[in-house]
Here is the input.
Amino acid sequence: MTYKSGFVTVIGRPNVGKSTLVNNLVGEKINIISPRPQTTRNSIKAIYTEENGQIIFIDTPGIHQARNKLDKYMLEEAYSSLEGIDLIIFILDGSTYWGKNDQMIYDQIKNSKKDIIYVMNKIDKISNKELQKRQKKYTQKVGEEVIPISALNNKNIDTLLAEIFSYLPEGPQYYPEDMITDQIERFVFAELIREKIFYLTREEVPYGAAVLVEEVKERENEDYYIRANIYVEKKSHKGIIIGKNGKMIKKIGREARKEIEDLMQTKVYLDLWVKVLKNWRDKDNLMKRMGYK
Here is the structure.
């Protein structure tokens, strides 16, 4: 049987379920998943390998209007991930209607020479009758068949996988089969910590929170010491993240540590520090320190 492989980019407006889909396919938590839009910052390569082929997923930040340098960087990342790939998956939100962000993305990709698979996610949130209605509307908008899925409940994911492989060329196995991401561990640790900040502080600390893992070392007893700085733009945000009597920072640390331990399969000591760096999102040198090149 022929071995197929290729690079696939997943695009869509913020909070449409791109990271949930990629994580479910790969079976590990790689991208930061948060109930808030705009949380994936770097295009992460997630790798799905099976007997007959390999898919390398490029997960892009959600596409939206740029407000500052960080937003601009995220938009550039989203569009640059369209170069050098074999297939585009455009995810639409089945629980709502076609919006201006969908139109903006569609205008960018409709003349692309790449193959495009259109997917309608979040069908678990709507009735069958509504599903057919929305699928028809989305199909009219894009002029192609739209595959309905629920990334959260794994519904129709097999159909989507078969469709992806039908488009991919014959090719080599680019990565070892046990490898699920090519991002360095520090980046994944930082993303897991950042996810907990988003989950636990919700609207209180906006997107001006970044995490930099400064040190990772294996200790003699084979557990890991990880030191990370959480950077915020305002003193008030620092107070929120630390919380009353340090309660919030302990909670963030506890939940992030649990996930890192699951990933590493070993005990972890997580040392978190909160620092104020005014307007880091608008300063190039600070952006570079945060890993946004």
Observations:
- The longest strand covers residues 4-12.
- Confidence is low (pLDDT under 50) at residues 33-42.
- The radius of gyration is 20 Å.
- Residues 184-289 form a domain with the GMP Synthetase; Chain A, domain 3 fold (CATH 3.30.300.20).
